[in-house]
Protein 1
Amino acid sequence: MNKKVMAVAVASAFAVPGVALAQKSTVEIYGRANLGFSHYEAKGATAGAANDLPGRFQVFDGSSRVGFRGTEDLGSGLRAIFQFETGVNVDNGSNTGQGGQANASSGFWASRDSFVGLDSNWGRLTFGRQSIYWANGVNAQFAANYVNTEIPWTNGTQLGRISIQGAAVARVSNTVQYTSPTFAGMNITGSYSVNPQEAQQTVGTAAGTTSDADGYVFGLTGRGTWGPFYAQADWVTVRANSLNATGTGGVLTPKGDAYKIGGSWGYMPGARVGLIWVRTDVNNGAANAVGIATGQKVNQDGWTINWEHTFGNFQVMAQYGWTGDIKGNGCNVGTLMNGVPTCSESASSAFMIGGRYFMSKRTWLYLTYNQVDNEQNQYVDYTGGGITSWGGSGTAAPTLGSLTGAVPRIFALGIFHAF
């Protein structure tokens, strides 16, 4: 990929008395524009046609961005590094998704992965807003680097009625992250965020409920490359701030854990096949937005098969995935998750087919079709980057209970340019 690189001599730009600044710093401007025209709908809701999301056209933005990153050689194998990456909604010039819903990864400086740190032969240490858990490396790059979207649970963060408690685990603010050196093709990344603590609040003193500043997000990722084979394992645990609630019998701590294991084989240049397994566990320490009763636990598994193959200037790609039913003692509660009464018939299946035509190394056209088939007590939708078109702009989003059983579909034609 061609980059626009600006090399500047730090010593000539800043005169610092008594300090010899012989090293040079490089700053790189990079980014992408990923836009297109699509049609979205979610019909077939269990509650009847009145609850469907009718088909509508949209000009979409698929995670366009602008970034600045750079390094400075500090000597003895030590480098200073930084990155400031900002999501840019080129379609509407704001920080909202297709239906006006807020998109925290766009519209503000450093809304995407942004950090400063040190890098050397002992590893890399960074501080800032950074990704935890969700990335898949080369195991699945469709939504991350190729096209508009993919099967929702591929990155392990969205299983419909099951979601990880307390904080997002994709791009997390206030994170310290360490990545080890690579040995025998393998390395490990550890991430720790105190973001829930920084948001500590007193919640409804009249009701006798306060929150402690003890929440956190902790994640581990191990990855390895051995010739044409790539494997990755992820684990993240999210602990919300504890709730000291009068009359509830003590401290309550909503929490969740997510697990992901994937592997793939690059059997020729531009061609790869792989499998990813994900699991989400929710332990609801307090009755909150997830909707299960105090102290109940639920979990769900998902799988995705990924395939891509290149013929000259054309690449075909396909995904097929499925989830199991929700399980756990929370399934015994009659009002599980927004009034949906049962964990049975809570599975989903999905597929994606598409193709890319390479006009150059940095520019391509693509065509994709995505569909999720939800059973009558489940609703999984495409949420990355606010790509679905309901909610926001003063319009109340439909409730989860009304959408269960619907079949979201997205047909898209897009153009991707990297710089």
Protein 2
Amino acid sequence: MSAIEHEIASQPDLWPRARALATEVADALPAKGQRTLVIGCGTSLYMAQSFAVSRESAGHGETDAFPASELPSGRRYDRVIALSRSGTTTEVVRALARIGDAAPTTAITAVPDSPVARAAGSVVAMPFADERSVVQTRFATSALVLLRGHVGIECAESARQAERALVAPLPIDPARFERFAFLGHGWTVGLANEAALKVREAAQAYSESYPAKDFRHGPVAVCGPRSLVWSLGDTDPDLDDVARAAGSIAYRNDLDPLAQLVLAQRFALALAAHRGLDPDQPRLLTRSVVLSL
């Protein structure tokens, strides 16, 4: 079993630990009503996007998600959350330095003794979810479970359904496709972004992601017989007909969205295997982006 296969399979066991940790570290996380910013890069950004929608939908207050490299100016926040698995991502360190004392900051990281942790006012350490792989899976989903748990969203059913997603046969043969589009709605837009990223990272395949109803506003034009359109969460079923009219295959299932992401992670690995690639050695990627300038 490759490192990433092991890490994908471990997610249902780690999510309850992450949920329990949310209660222990509640003082380091945004209180209800606080205006909150969540920053990250790559996968961490997509988890930030999912949490921002989840928090607002739960009635806990205005929440923004931005790439750490695109920190907004002129906005005031009551709490800033920085997501970084390795704790070494240069853009996150720089963003925290720029924020300084303007708002309380919390780093969520797998490595508590790291530059990001030292730059933040508070640290939520998740070493149990750290990974050997370059391609993130379990740290990201565990951090999202922790944050969603903090606003009262439980994970037990997600974990149960993820167990099913780990053992079920893949519903689609990845060898049939050359292009991939993942669609989401609400908090699953971030999950769709993450699913598309896993396909790019692990399998070097052309994949994209959109808020579901934006699919009709241009993206459908590049779909054809070798395209797969995969919907996560509560998206409009009519979009399946739009995809089929373009000659594409449309896919959706009724699993919990986090379990759907686990299935998409497995799909990315199967696509990598079909292409003769080692997902533990993704092209041009490293565990963390550390800039020299």
Protein 3
Amino acid sequence: MSPRKRKALGGDETIVAVITPPGEGGIAALRLAGPNSRTIALKFLRSSSEDPIDLQPFVLRYAEFVAGDGVSIDEVTSVFMPLGRSYTGLEQVEIFCHGGRQVVRMILDELIKSGARPAEPGEFTKLAFLNGRIDLARAEAVAEIIASGTESSFRASREHLLGAYSEHIDNLRNELIKITAEVEASIDFPEEEIRAADSDELTRSLSSIGTSIHELIESYSGGRIITEGFTIAICGRPNAGKSSLFNLLLKQERALVHEVPGTTRDYISEWIELGGVAVNLIDTAGLRTAGGKVEKEGQKRALEIVSKSHLVLWVVDSSVKGWERRCIKDVKSLRCSNILVVSNKNDLVRNNSSSLDKAPAPITVRVSCQTGFGIKELKHNLVARISEKMPDFTSGMVVTSARHKKKLAEALTHIKASRRKISADDSPELVAFELRQATTALEEITGKVYTEQILDQIFGKFCIGK
């Protein structure tokens, strides 16, 4: 299906869903959205005198919810939002009842029996997009906010929801449209063909737009950390104290610790939060030439994890004589650019200063997993390493979506192609084609053009009730 312009959606269906998390709670909320929302709700809402109540816009009303068979289910409050002034843009009623599972289920069943259809995942937000309440990038930010589990992920999604990011994309789109109009003028009016001076100006303008798009693409490396987390692999030779360090950072006895080398045969992964960022902490099998078939498979997986990690903590037993020389050799063999050497078991070392002077090139942090010495300093170091990879949240110009990155890359490819065609003095039609393709790619980010497949992919990830 080719991209098409967005059109408002009214529809003749009324949909309903519970919009609070499942399970028991003090309050639960249900949302009706559609042309019959008010009519359906009024069938069940009764005043204390058992008379029907009137729902005025944005006035919270107390009532009893009385089922179709006349049995009172619960005391509720409700609010009515008229067409064009609700989250979805449609006529909408929200009902707040006690948060018991059975109460919620009974009220929901009555609303469905009265003509409302169960909402699909993300359908309320999809309606908000289709009715022009929010653009597609801001709709995706709604899902990001719901899924955010750390301060950084919340801040990034909040900035997207506030709209600065969408506005920036729209500004780039508008600049492309202006340039396209200039190029197309030479198609409609051959006497206005692109002159050399105009060609230089167009190229400079496109270069500026391309730079802005490239910066957005580059921000995705940090944006991806926000959405997917920062991965730290704990590696080293057997019995260096990797699992002990893992447990200390995790603040629980998650990994088995034993004096026998090769205890960890496979990796263990857990999530922690450092500096407001979700960190995937991985305890890997000890790396050595010895070991059985199972242990060697664990070592193979450990090396695979190293290659995919943002940071590697190489743990060494500093109580063993000559650890510095072996550490330098081990670190070089990893061929990893981001390594922090953690010198463990310093409680067993008498002269720490001389040992540290011989430390390998990567920054070495001294710790003792037995006494807790150095762990606070290590955490500060980890937060600093993570912060180096994080983007600036204040601008709101952080790309966190793989879909957005792909569309930005498409736009940049077509912009570069248009510049080459202008420099080569190619036909204005060919230049205009590339510019229109770039514009369409940007419009698919905010949803000015879209396909049903795009909407299904985006809103299918939402939960029911949002």
